[in-house]
Every structure is written in structure tokens, then in C-alpha cells.
Amino acid sequence: MIIGLTGGIASGKSTAAQLLAEWGAHMIDADKLGHRAYLKGTPAFAQVVATFGEDIVGEDGEIDRQKLGAKVFGQGNRLDELTAIVWPAIRAMAEQEIKDVQLKYPQQIVVLEAAVLIEAGWLDLVDQVWVTIVDPEVAINRASSRDGTDRAAVQARIDAQITNEERQQVADQVIDNSKGLAELRAELEKLWADLK
Length: 196
Known about the structure:
Layout: E1 2-7, H1 13-22, E2 26-29, H2 30-37, H3 43-52, H4 65-72, H5 78-104, E3 110-113, E4 128-133, H6 136-147, H7 151-160, H8 164-170, E5 173-176, H9 181-195
């Protein structure tokens, strides 16, 4: 069983992933794969440097994510150019890890945690889609206090993502995390028990 876990900013996706891992799920974190996707020596590294310029490479020989970010965010379709390089690399790594786990442990539940699961077109990698949701106002308050960012910056990130409604249209399970950790845990425990 492969679960695709997704959700918007401050919706509790990472907390849900942490709980599922504690209960025995094999976690694949697309963010971590994203960091590995364009390390020096990978095909994506060469593509990103060719697309965005040698000046994004830091003194350590790796891509300086801040320099890259400055060239990508709010720069027209530059983000699309980056995701066209990085998303296929992340997908390939996720597919390989899923195969490896299923080969060794056929009964293992695998959770692919990916904020962009739907946008990247990775639904075919998973058997079920679990979506964490919160009201946008709750997300703004949580992200602002957690990250120390202002409301406008959080709102901009929410606006750049697909909506809760769009996520719910493809969800097999919708996990409402508006209340708190105890309620989130209880809801997840029930879903986990049903899987087992």
C-alpha cells in the first residue's frame, strides 16, 4: 500500500507524516529528495546550472539555493523551468525507493509525503491520496507564528498553491487538522488501524 500524503502550508502534513512513521510506515519525503535532486554530479545539477547560470553555484561547488531562489521566485515562468527539471528527478528517486522497499518488504506501508503530489502529476505512484486541510486563516496564523513570517508572505504562498477544494477532489481521505494535535492523532490512528 502506497499512500500519497499532501496538503497546503501549515496544514499538518509533516506532523501527520511523523506520526505515520512512528507507527511503522516507511516515509519518503519529497522535500528531502528535492534537496538531493540537484546535488553536484547529478543530471539535474547540470541542467539547472545550464538553465540559470554558473553564478548560482556556491564556493562549495553546490547550487546555492538562495541565489537560485532569487532567479526563480517572482520571475515570470522561471519557476516552471525549474520544476520541469527537478520534479522528474524527484519522481524517479521516489519510484526507485518505492520499488526497493516493496522488493524487500512487500507488506510495508509506504507514505510519499509531497506538497506537490497533485501538481506534479504523481497520483499514479500511489494507491491512496490523503490530504491534510485547515482553514486558510488557521494556516496563516500557524505559519506566521511558526516561521516568523508576515501574514502577506504566508498568504502569497497559499495563493501560489492549489486550493483545499482542488486537493479534496482527488483525495481518498481528507484529514481536517483545524482543531489540534490530539484530534489529528485520533483521526490518523483510525485511518492507520483501517489500513492494518
